[in-house]
Amino acid sequence: MTPHTLAATAAIAVPILLTLSYIYLCYERPFREHRRCQGTGRIPYLFGRGWRFCPRCNGTGLRLRIGRRIWNHARRLHRDGTR
């Protein structure tokens, strides 16, 4: 194998491997921690010791991954189109 062939193979294989691993991650673990509340579901008040529920994740601390949103949308389109 020449160095050029090896570099071309790696340039093709690495993005495909990363894409497949992200697809598997979206399938296996569709939710991720919400960044704003660090997965706790709570946001502290600016002053004082109180907190409130995070309005973006509704206090769950979890958000649906972008890849899983695309997957769900594609499934919904397919389901609605084949009825």
Describe this structure as you would to a colleague:
The protein has 83 residues and is α+β, with helices and mostly antiparallel strands. The chain has one domain (3-81). It is built from two helices and four strands; from the N terminus they run αββββα. The strands form two sheets. Strands 1-4 form a two-stranded antiparallel ribbon. Strands 2-3 form a two-stranded antiparallel ribbon. The radius of gyration is 20 Å and the shape is flat.
**Number of helical stretches of at least 4 residues:** 2
Count of all domains? 1
Q: Topology as H/E string?
A: HEEEEH
Spatial strand order of the main sheet: 1-4
Catalogue the unreliable spans: none
Through-space gap between termini:
51 Å
Oligomeric status of the shown chains? single chain
Question: Key terms for this structure?
Answer:
about 80 residues; alpha+beta; 4 strands; about 50% helix
